[in-house]
Amino acid sequence: MAADYIVIPEQNNFPGFDGVFLDMVDAYWELSDPPYYDSNARANMENFVKYLSNYAKSKRPGFKIIANNAQDLVFKENSTTLNTEYLNAIDGLARESMFFANGRRRTDTQINYDLQYLNAFKNNGKMVFTIDYPSTVTDIQWDINKSAAAGFIPFCGNEALDRMVTYY
User: What is the value of pTM for the model shown?
Assistant: First the structure.
């Protein structure tokens, strides 16, 4: 990581903020590969999220932490054992490109692979959001129905996220 610390203002215990959406939690995947070869990248990210959560919740009880992607952190590394410390640190998970990636519907095999992780979050009382970018009304309806049927909270938008889109 570029910084070894983060400074959070003490004034008024985060006025106006009830939580945060942590994008790029899965960045540790890239740090594990060349040219970085950081074998501690996953643990460092997990510890960073836990630190932020502990700090924020100590200042404002009820503060929400929503992690984007990095769904594999629900289990301990190379295991199917629940990672309870990480689960306790976050309140929800957003899975981007759950049903659509690169403008195409993902295969059932790909979707089912990720469902094992998302269901582990959901089954442990965490909110699960799906964020997808389908382009046709039929695909949007399919995406919303698939996500809702799984017990997740769906969002469909345009990939640039530069405007609000209303779907009827």
Answer: 0.84
